[in-house]
Write the structure tokens for this entry.
Amino acid sequence: MLTQGFSVQYSPLDYLGTKTQGTIAAIRNKDDKIVKKLLAMGVHTGMHITLEQRFPSFIIRVGRTRIAIDKDIANSIKVRVISH
Amino acid sequence: MDCHDCHQSCHPKRQNIGWKIFNFGFKKKRPKNSSSTGRTTIALVGSPNVGKSLLFNLLTGTYVTVSNYPGTTVEVAKGNAVIAGEKVTFFDTPGMYSLMPITEEESVARDLIANEGVDLIIHVIDAKHLGRMLNLTLQLMETQLPVLLVVNMIDEAQKLGIWVNEDRLAHQLGIPVVTMAAAQKVGLKKLIAKVADHVPSNSVSLTY
Amino acid sequence: MSPQILYPSPIETAISRIELLLSERWQDAISRRSIALLLLQQDRETRSQLQREPYFPEIERIISETQANMSESLTFAIAQTRHQLARAIEEDVTVHLRHQPVVKDEWLHQLTVHPLTGIPILILILYFGIYQFVGVFGGGTLVDGIEGFFESSINPVVNNIVAAIVPWQAIRDLLANDYGIITLGIRYAVAIVLPIVTTFFLMFSLLEDSGYLPRLSLLMDRAFKTIGLSGRSIIPLILGLGCGTMATLVTRTLESKRERIIATLLLALTIPCSAQLGVILALLSQEPTALLIWSGVMMAIFLGIGFVAGKVVPGEASCFYMEIPPLRLPSLPAILTKTYVRLKWYFAEILPLFIFASILIWVGKLTGLFDVIVRGLEPVMLWLGLPTEAAPTFLYGFFRRDYGAAGMFDLHSSGILTGQQLVVAAVTLTLFIPCIAQLQFMLKERGIKTTMAIAIFVVCFAFSLGYLLNQLLTIMEIF
């Protein structure tokens, strides 16, 4: 990650609109269990992520995996947006 | 879903109905480990929805519910098979994503591996999600228990244009690898042959 | 053996130090390196196993020292290292011919998860799949057919044969007549429970194999959060409409202890199992107002109790995440096999209890013990505004929830219960204690303390609510 300067912006997934694509910049949650679970399901930093739906649950696609998550977990995934 | 009908039922004797009813709060049943039976024990582990139960059915001929929903196998199913002339016990476990369990059903598989100990772990993974699922393979290899990797659903992966090089993967990991399409029984013979390598032939056999 | 993963050096150092501390241990099935890594990732189970060891504080110190040297969490660093290696191996051993694969069932997936189309689809599936197929077809058409056959062809024959062979009245009653093993136990199992449970398991297996259930969970998650549950809980709760005992076992798949307790409580209190549901629906369908009040009251209690439990039961709020597998066209043999395996489980667990319940009822009647309990229940019946003849149905209801409901059926057809009494009795019986099998599984899954608490609450709540409902209906003069 050499090219990232100070201007890097990333936002929590739940702030983003449907169809947003990006790279996972960080996964942060006060509950360690949730971080572990996301990691175990293949949600890692640096991976490409697409937000497919926001309501009634958030649906994300990471790699070839589709995962439904709630707002709280969506908030813990920080995304560097590539396109809307 | 439940404790499946196994050849050797892990349930307490059914005839003893009265005992069963009043035996409130009995402990979680655990499969006996290898040292107490002297029989080779093999555990099938992996994430939900990768075809563990189907493979278990193929290997043991025992019906276990095969599910497309995470979390409907909640207990260990046990079934026997004869491999390389020896009786082998297979355990089918509820899905788990990593060695660190979060729900109770996940701890079932982890308890089997970490507390009971088995002679061989067959880690079943989905060829379509190879990279993601190799995580658990690496964790399982760290336990130093013998691990055999089954890369299942290669037919589905090939439809998506993904081809897995079995030999190369085996070389990279340093463990035996079998690519399979269990639903079509493709690769089953190869798997049984590799499992046979882990079944010690009983030199003091009294069968003669 | 095989090449090991190399973690960042502070972690490797910590692993070696912990391994050294663990070198006295010999009883572990897995390697010390593995245990050390689990400890570094704060794995609860490993920690609790080692907590009492003299070197545990030393391990704790190593972990916190290591963490202090790292910018990210240890769990994260370890997972990231593994992940990178896994990805690198994947790159190396796979060949990708096409890139973005065309997913042909994409539109169907979108239809099932989009709220505007997903919710109507959900309602249609529940209406046709559960209500029409299981309730009306299984619980109505099939039950009527088989039950009628038993009543007209089997029971009289059994009664006659037993009367001819067995000289003692007591033994005759054990095998035949009103509460006999064959005429009641087997009849209920084959005529009432078998058709309902079979149709339910068929439908459930179909939903399960198609991959629809995770979609159902994600649609319900937000709504379920208000009653202290997550979308995950919809599975055991729907399964509870089939068999509360099996559903109690499946609450294991829920994430937190809190969610498991709330789901167990709701299963014990408000969710009628298919056997009970079948009888109650048949009973109440003769009185449309009664059916309406019963469903309204049950729904209100489900939401109300869930809401209160969500506030009262300690523990953190549930989170929800679930992998959504692709929708698949289920294969018929797989569904039939699965239904068969579930039925087999059900009957292996439940049938002995049916027979046992018949025996208990027989013993209870023979020794006069039941008369004592029934007499004790009679004031309670009067309190609920019910005739004293209803007392036995409550007692039998404990052995099988549907025994109670079926007993009520007889009372109604002989004209003893009025419409209002019918509603009060139906609501109280639905709420009342789960059957003996479900109670046994509650004990097994939740432990004695939680189970006792739930059981006491359920009994008190059922009778208090029955009382209130009776008073309310009397004031409102609906019937």
Q: What stands out?
A: The longest helix of chain A spans residues 32-40. Strands of chain A lie at 11-12, 21-27, 48-53, 58-62, 65-69, 77-83.
